[in-house]
Design a protein that fits this description.
The complex is a heterodimer of chains A (143) and B (290).
Chain A (H helix, E strand, L loop, with lengths): L4 E7 L2 E15 L2 E6 L5 E14 L6 E14 L2 E6 L6 H20 L7 H26 L1
Parallel strand pairs in A: 1-6
Antiparallel strand pairs in A: 1-2, 2-3, 2-4, 4-5, 5-6
Chain B lengths: L3 H38 L1 H17 L16 E7 L9 H18 L3 E7 L1 H10 L2 E6 L9 H15 L5 E9 L5 E9 L18 E3 L2 H76 L1
Parallel strand pairs in B: 1-2, 1-4, 2-3
Antiparallel strand pairs in B: 4-5
Helix pairs in contact in B: 1-6, 2-6
Classes of the chains: A alpha+beta (143), B alpha/beta (290).
């Protein structure tokens, strides 16, 4: 029997996956990671992409989870993906912060205006990341 | 028969109000269950994160993030105030604001400056009237709040903290104890208290491999941890809101029922009096003719 580890994929808005797996593949910030049981403890940031989990007993099939970034923590028999539910980048966060500030200033001054630019930008970034993940999947199926 | 018709229309209008409050009660009950589910669903993430942060705090003591240092003197405090977007939920928001105002008074007496970040339109409206330095706001999160909409306001506060404009940040929300009880709660966000390295786990100390480096990893972990704390507070406040609304609407429906009963009695009496009067008029009329 192959060695197994526990895999948890959780996001701030809820648990996404939990189970026993033989292998996990994840898009680490400095490169794709393939993780087997008894991996040395490691912690890294994740890029947007898909996390693939090879479940116990179904050695051929992989489960795919799209993550828009997050953190990956590896211990010898536990792998935890702390997934982001939003696309994160310094400038996007900045835009959100400025937006929140502006709204506060405006609503206290009694003005109202809808400035949806930052939101559209975030949505666009998310769509692009999702497209990339899909493209990657297609390539993998073809090969 | 004076007033009988007025009473009848009044009863009809109270009945329709009762129908509305009854419906709102049921809607709030079902929303509350969903909000409770969300509240529980968000816990594993924060717990796991706290575990990792604690471990990191022990494993790399040479890097102290500003979110974790306790040494600063408190001169300026920020409050993230979470309220509901809509009313009709009993004294939920006003209790929260009352508690907050007490706290603010106590702080001001010690010469501490205060600024706010509001989440939810009731809090924003309150500070418009009450006055105060509102640095950021977000409203209309809906029944299913997303962490995405909280990133901005939280960042404004954390940036201020890092620049030294704030020395501590607290989050103010309604704690969900059970359906009948919600309690205003003020919780400290930064400096993070739970990450104190006091409670060291026994056993050999091991360390992670960091990609790219401990600093970056800890930075993004802490940011996410704080955001998830705020998110949890928002979700918990949402569950409290629905619970409070459910109770308030139940009380309103019951009161409407009592009112209808009373009015019905008055109406019956008026009707009876009218009939009696008519009869006596007929009888006396007949007696006059014969």
């Amino acid at each position: 029997m192959a060695m197994t580890m526990h895999v948890d994929i959780v996001s701030a808005e809820g648990a996404i996956h939990s189970g026993i797996a033989t292998r996990v593949y994840a898009p680490g910030e400095s490169g794709e990671l393939g993780i087997a049981a008894r991996h040395t403890p490691l912690i890294t940031r994740l890029k947007p992409g898909d996390v693939r989990v090879v479940n116990e007993n179904t050695s051929d099939e992989m489960e795919h989870f799209y993550v828009s970034g997050g953190m990956l923590e590896i211990q010898p028999d536990v792998v935890t993906v702390l997934a982001d539910t939003a696309i994160r980048a310094q400038n996007l966060d900045e835009a959100a912060a400025i937006e929140a500030k502006r709204r506060a200033e405006e609503s206290l001054a009694g003005k109202t205006a809808d400035f949806e630019y930052a939101k559209a930008q975030i949505e666009l970034a998310e769509a692009i990341a999702q497209l990339r993940a899909i493209e990657k999947l297609r390539k993998m199926r073809a090969s | 028969m004076a007033g009988a018709k007025e009473i009848r229309t009044k009863i009809a209008s109270i009945k329709s109000t009762q129908k509305i409050t009854g419906a709102m009660e049921m809607v709030a009950a079902s929303k509350m269950r969903k909000a409770q589910d969300r509240m529980h669903a968000s816990r594993p993430y924060a717990e796991k994160m706290l575990q990792v942060i604690r471990h990191l705090a022990q494993a790399s003591p040479e890097y102290h993030h500003s979110f974790m240092s306790q040494s600063r003197e408190i001169k300026r405090v920020g409050y993230v105030v979470i309220s509901s977007d809509r009313g009709l939920c009993g004294g939920l928001n006003s209790n929260l604001f009352r508690r907050l105002v007490q706290e603010i008074k106590a702080q001001r007496q010690q010469g501490i400056e205060i600024s706010f970040c509001t989440i939810g339109s009731k809090a924003l409206g309150f500070f418009k009237r009450f006055g105060g330095d509102v640095k950021a706001e977000v409203t209309h999160l809906g029944d299913r709040p997303h962490i995405e909409s909280l990133i901005g306001p939280v960042k404004v506060m954390l940036d201020a903290f890092e620049r030294g404009e704030l020395d501590a940040i607290h989050v103010v929300y309604n704690e969900f104890i059970n359906t009948m009880t919600q309690r205003p709660r003020i919780q400290q966000l930064v400096p993070i208290q739970a990450a104190d390295a006091k409670d060291r786990p026994s056993g050999p100390i091991w360390d992670y491999i960091y990609e790219p480096d401990p600093r970056t990893v800890l930075d993004s972990l802490l940011l996410r941890y704080i955001e998830s704390l705020v998110y949890q507070a928002v979700v918990e406040n949402g569950a409290s809101e629905q619970a409070a609304r459910m109770v308030a609407m139940k009380a309103a429906s019951d009161n409407a029922g009592n009112l209808i009963d009373e009015l019905q009695l008055v109406y019956n009496k008026a009707r009876q009096a009218a009939i009696t009067q008519e009869l006596s008029e007929i009888v006396s009329g007949a007696a006059a003719i014969s």
